[in-house]
Amino acid sequence: MADTTPLEMADAFATVVADGVHCEPIPVVSITDGNGRPAVDAKGAEVAKPRCAQVLSADVARGAVDAARCVTGYKAATGDWGGWSTASRVFATVRRPIAGKSGTTDDDRSAWFVGMTPGLTVSGFIADPDNPVHRVGAGNAGKPRETVAETMRDALAGTPVRGFVAPGPQIVGKKPAAKPRTRSRV
Predict the structure, then answer these.
(1) Which pLDDT value is given to residue 28?
(2) Residue range 142-158: average pLDDT?
């Protein structure tokens, strides 16, 4: 079993859905001193101010999100996904633009799902910490998907629906134009 936590997974996917901008996860919205002013560190920076950096090209991130839309049954903006997905009921539950990734670890020792919309990323998994070789993912892979989808649906209720920005053609490529057919004379 991997040492990756649900917070680390949500953080990684949140970076992708934020056009490649990574913001260090912080557990607070604001911290104030006794006088009601924002608390600052030794360098004078606000303690609770988001610390963000562009770590991935926005267009590459948009390409990854576009591909991850297929997993949820939402369909990519830039192409056909073949009609098959590993978490097709997620879109039906959340009822708004969503992308995500399902997965299991080796030997089904855990099952994961991470869902992302513009503005919210949620990660869930199932594993047995008391018995790391227990194949808890076998037969339970739907539980993280359902939990994440229902959590996102409820958390986003009453908020504006936001869509994804499609990646540019340099990321997804263009279908080659059909070549004119010629008949050879024999």
Answers:
(1) 79
(2) 96
pLDDT band at 2, cuts 50/70/90?
low
Domains observed in the chain: 6-31+43-160 (3.40.710.10)
Q: Which residues contact 137 (CB under 8 A, 6 or more apart)?
A: 104, 105, 108, 109, 110, 111, 126, 127
Label the pairing between strands 21-23 and 52-54: antiparallel
Which two three-digit tokens encode residue 101? Answer: 């990734």
Q: Which of 177, 124, 171, 116 is nearest to 146 (CA)?
A: 124
Gap between the terminal Cα atoms of the chain: 65
**Percentage of the chain surpassing pLDDT 70?**
89
Contact 59, 170 (CB under 8 A): yes
What's the whole-model pTM score?
Answer: 0.81
Q: How far apart are CA 103 and CA 124, in angstroms?
A: 11
| Closest-CA residue to 103 (of 75, 72, 137) | 137
**What pLDDT is attached to residue 1?**
46
